[in-house]
Amino acid sequence: MSVVAMASNEIQKLRPSLPIPTAIKGAEIGSFAHFTVTVRLPEIAQRVIAENEFPSSIEQNLAALIGEIPNGEIRDLQDADAPDLAAWTGYIEPYKGSNWLDVPWYFVEAYFYRRILEATTYFQVGSWQNVDPYEKQKRLGLETTIDAIGALSGFVKSAIASTTDIETKKSAFRQLLSADLWGNRVDLSLWPIMEGGSSRVESTREQSYILVDDTPIIAEKVVNFQNLRVDFIVDNAGFELIGDLCLADYLLASHAAEVVYLHLKAHPIFVSDAMSKDVLYTIAFLTQATDLNLKELGWRLKDYLDNGRLLCQENFFWTSPLAFWEMPESLDQELSNSNLIIVKGDANYRRTVGDRHWEYTTPYQSITSYFPAPFVALRTLKSELATGLSTEQLKQLPQQDTQWLTNGQWGVIQFVERDR
Ligand SMILES: O=P(O)(O)OC[C@@]1(O)O[C@H](CO)[C@@H](O)[C@@H]1O
């Protein structure tokens, strides 16, 4: 096979095998994407002004950004020192001069959060360099969910102590997986803490709210794991991250996993998405808690970090606007070493399928067979996109809940075997 044919074969491997539908766009009147671009994004930028004590120059930058949405023109980024500037020049090129509604929705969201950092001079040398504009929300997201964190840390402690018979192990894993799914309902970009966002914390919900549940397949695999590698493509800090860390704790303490990798955002995005600093802050928060279960959880996690069994890896791909089938070869290669990847949240789910208008009955596996390792998506539905549903579900759900696609009340646990 020629080099060119091999190269195109490699690229082909990294794309869905099905014809790829059109991208979701904010121009679709009445859609959640349209509501997000025209209403939610300006509101998020206003909250950034309200929750920080930026100087007037930065507040003017943010006000100007708000004024551009949605009829302003997409333009190149202007923070010259940013490490991701060259990559963003390439991302922006196809959309330069377009308004914020006529380009793919996921691009607009990633671009918006990156423009927030341009406005706050996040990448510039000076007083606001590396200052996370969502820090206050993230910390409150931990402090206001302390009771739920206590309950979950107590559960994982007892689960670790009872890693005896297979059925007990499967049951414990299933409950931790479910808690990690429902932690995704706490979403500060949709429901800010100051507007009662913490009230959405719960670790358990009736099984009927899980629309696709591959837990039995995953539990059967994991219960037989011995000293393997598990990777989390992490989503939100706060209570959701506690769910990730409790699941990681269980996998590491039971030696199902020898090592757990946390793949984290390279800069603040989607208000609550986690970076390495948020993981370290969360573990320190736990070690300093008065509650013994929280303290013990924190010290176990710190021990895993110190002994190289829990690893934090940031990558600018996770903050890029690209579909997951466009991930760099180096990252694809790295993830191919995993025995199981846990993909968290709605935005990552959207990226696994390129945020396209797939029929909701399209099998998830047939779109995502490009993935570099076996993976499970833990996602509460917060956008008008779904896969793997039945025609019966599509008849019933709108009658049960008119907002079923976007209110985070429904979830999926979808497993995809590696297929390349
Ligand atoms: O990835 P997450 O935290 O589960 O959700 C991200 C999100 O809040 O942002 C997008 C809308 O702005 C949607 O994908 C979803 O509502």
UniProtKB/TrEMBL annotation:
SUPFAM superfamilies: AF1104-like
Keyword Transport: no
Damage-control phosphatase ARMT1-like metal-binding domain span: 37-392
Cofactor(s) this protein cannot do without: Mn(2+)
Domain of life according to the entry: Bacteria
Keyword Manganese: yes
Pfam families: ARMT1-like_dom
Catalytic activity, as annotated: beta-D-fructose 6-phosphate = dihydroxyacetone + D-glyceraldehyde 3-phosphate; beta-D-fructose 1-phosphate + H2O = D-fructose + phosphate
UniProt entry keywords in alphabetical sequence: Hydrolase, Manganese, Metal-binding
Similarity comment: family membership: Belongs to the damage-control phosphatase family. Sugar phosphate phosphatase III subfamily.
PANTHER family attached to this UniProt entry: DAMAGE-CONTROL PHOSPHATASE ARMT1 (PTHR12260:SF6)
Protein name: Damage-control phosphatase ARMT1 family protein
Organism: Floridaenema flaviceps BLCC-F50
